[in-house]
Design a protein that fits this description.
The chain is of the alpha+beta class and 363 residues long. The chain folds into 2 domains: 32 residues; 306 residues, no CATH class. Helix content is 36%, strand content 29%. A hairpin with a 4-residue loop joins strand 3 and strand 4. Helix 5 packs across helix 6 and helix 7 runs antiparallel to helix 9. The longest helix is centred in the first third of the chain and has 38 residues. It is flat and about 70 Å long.
Length: 363
């Protein structure tokens, strides 16, 4: 009996000792990790590597609107049978043709040396720097637009043929002073061929289109251009933006609420803007707030106003509710970075050559 008690006591002691050793080992491991944080650099994350890629809000631009999407196989036949020739959507049909709803938040930093905004994952400020935070509520459709893009360098030779997603200085130190962006003829070749070759069959037009695209690709490639397809967002919505100046470093601007709190504490100042995108009318105009400063109260009021306008946007009887809806370009997704020179060149080309939006066929 005594031996059994001694053996049980020994096992209890052994368990306690091992438990204590385990805790010590875990503590030592934790301390080692903390020490390592000071000596080992943090690995670059996917988000950091792709910091210049993503959603970029744009000031609204008009589009070339046409009925008949690729999904409407018999769109022209149906239009002829019903006697409809209108090329624009009715006011109440717009929302049904815009399949995607999203709320996007983007932050841009202002480069005082270049006088430009660069969108990226900036969430903490540097003292004296300027930023823009944009909250978009949009109902939109993504339109793929093909561009030919050429990077212009100090010596426009083989260096310009490097991938356009590289930095604004080439590997051999040549500064990039701009980009040349041209819309591909793929956006308009079908209509042009039907106009120049009336009465031709579908097979002939298909062959002519393929030849035209091959010739364009050859000429543009020889001139140093690269073809890029960029999703352009066409739709309607509402936008809330804050232009701020950081009075201190390390301020969080990861959301509008955080910006409001920091403004209340006098750690930043700025202005607030509420904007409608492709939406107008008496009901929208009367709901727009008039912010006179940037603080938590004005941000909350602006968010409430956007909620009111959003409810009005979905009123069942369009014009009777005092709302007009006209889809416009509201933003784009950049797969080639957010260099302001490049984004400005793309925006300029979009304003010059309106992208065609083939509305989805809803039966």
């Amino acid at each position: 009996m005594t031996a059994f008690v001694r053996q049980e006591s020994f096992y209890s002691f052994l368990k306690g000792y091992l438990r204590m050793q385990s805790r010590v080992a875990v503590l030592l491991l934790f301390m080692t990790c903390l020490a390592g944080c000071a000596t080992i650099s943090r690995p670059e994350t996917l988000g950091e590597r792709a910091s210049g890629f993503g959603y970029i809000p744009l000031d609204p631009l008009p589009i070339d609107q046409a009925k008949g999407a690729d999904s409407c196989v018999n769109a022209e036949t149906m239009a002829a049978a019903t006697g409809t020739s209108n090329t624009t959507l009715g006011n109440d049909d717009v929302l049904a043709k815009l399949p995607d709803q999203t709320i996007r938040f983007a932050v841009a930093s202002f480069d005082q040396t270049k006088g430009s905004l660069t969108f990226g994952p900036a969430t903490l400020t540097a003292k004296g720097n300027q930023y823009r935070a944009v909250l978009d509520y949009i109902q939109a459709d993504a339109v793929p637009v093909q561009f030919w893009i050429k990077r212009l360098t100090q010596a426009d030779d083989a260096a310009s043929a490097r991938p356009i997603i590289q930095a604004t200085v080439t590997a051999d130190g040549r500064a990039v002073y701009g980009y040349d962006v041209v819309t591909s003829i793929a956006q308009s070749v079908d209509g042009d061929l039907r106009a120049t070759h009336p009465g031709e069959g579908a097979d002939t037009l298909t062959k002519l289109k393929a030849e035209a695209l091959r010739e364009e690709a050859m000429l543009r490639t020889e001139a140093g251009y690269q073809q890029v397809t960029i999703p352009v967002y066409v739709g309607v919505g509402l936008r809330l933006s804050a232009d701020i100046v950081a009075l201190k470093s390390g301020i969080s601007i990861s959301g509008l609420s955080a910006i409001g709190v920091e403004a209340e504490a006098n750690r930043l100042n700025g202005t607030l803007t509420v904007q409608s995108l492709g939406v107008s009318g008496k009901a929208i105009a009367t709901a727009l707030p008039l912010p006179n400063k940037l603080d938590q109260t004005t941000i909350e009021s602006a968010i409430l106003a956007i909620g009111t306008m959003r409810a009005t946007l979905y009123a069942s009887s369009g014009q009777d509710a005092g709302v007009n809806r006209q889809p416009r370009i509201v933003g784009l997704y950049s797969p080639v970075g957010s260099d302001p020179l490049l984004i400005n060149a793309i925006y300029s080309e979009l304003s010059k050559q309106r992208p065609r939006w083939y509305t989805p066929c809803i039966r």
